[in-house]
């Protein structure tokens, strides 16, 4: 299973990185879409400077076709039958343990994976989960909401970039562990005898 996880990460890390690059470069536009959704009088408050494309579907986020495969791998690794093995294996490498301990609960739900990797489905889901105001806002309230949304989006991107970093580190650790050279295995064996 860990080998499948390694292959999945290696096959998709570049696509995920491209989505992050895309969302970072379009933060202002995304914030405006979020604001339009949650503010009933948004169109009457904005100036021409903020008017952008009004649909997440218009953005070119990359869809990751086999998110369900990652979910399946994580679900199997955290299943009752493999949990003991997964824990024992994960404890040997800090990067793998960190992903197991902090991120497996997030990565066993396809919608959360989509949101964390900023796919089109994930962005639509983030937009749908936004709360809306039934009352009208003033210009000052809209500016405050804009700053708050920018902060939340930046924080979300930062948090999800950390997940991407942990995935890459896990990939490196898994590669070293699963495909170590004969000399590396000999050194590890000698070091384990000293303990």
Labels describing this entry:
195 residues; mainly alpha; elongated
Task: Furnish the topology, listing elements before pairings.
Blueprint: H1 2-25, H2 27-38, H3 42-45, H4 67-77, H5 80-91, H6 94-107, H7 110-116, H8 120-128, H9 139-178, H10 182-194
Helix pairs in contact: 1-4, 1-9, 2-9, 5-6, 6-9, 7-8
* Rounded radius of gyration (Å): 21 Å
C-alpha termini separation: 29 Å
DSSP summary, beta strand count: 0
Count of all domains: 1
Tally of separate helices: 10
Mean pLDDT: 87
Order of helices and strands: HHHHHHHHHH
Portion of residues in beta strands equals: under 5%
Shape: elongated
Helix content: over 70%
The biggest beta sheet reads: none
Residue runs with pLDDT of under 50 for 5 or more positions: none
Structural class: mainly alpha
């Amino acid at each position: 299973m860990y080998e499948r996880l390694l292959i999945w990460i290696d096959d998709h890390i570049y696509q995920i990185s491209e989505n992050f690059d895309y969302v970072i470069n379009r933060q202002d536009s995304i914030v405006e879409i979020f604001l339009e959704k949650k503010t009933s009088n948004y169109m009457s408050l904005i100036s021409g400077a903020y008017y952008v494309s009004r649909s997440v579907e218009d953005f070119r986020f990359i869809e990751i076709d086999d998110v369900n495969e990652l979910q399946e791998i994580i679900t199997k690794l955290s299943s009752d039958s493999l949990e003991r093995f997964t824990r024992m294996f994960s404890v040997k490498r800090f990067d793998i343990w960190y992903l197991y301990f902090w991120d497996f609960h997030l990565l066993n739900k396809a919608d959360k994976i989509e949101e964390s990797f900023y796919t089109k489905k994930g962005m639509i889901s983030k937009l749908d989960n936004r709360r809306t105001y039934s009352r009208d806002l003033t210009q000052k309230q809209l500016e405050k909401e804009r700053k708050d949304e920018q902060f939340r989006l930046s924080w979300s991107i930062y948090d999800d970039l950390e997940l991407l970093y942990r995935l890459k580190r896990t990939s490196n650790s898994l590669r070293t562990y699963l495909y170590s050279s004969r000399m590396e295995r000999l050194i590890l064996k000698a070091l384990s005898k000293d303990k």
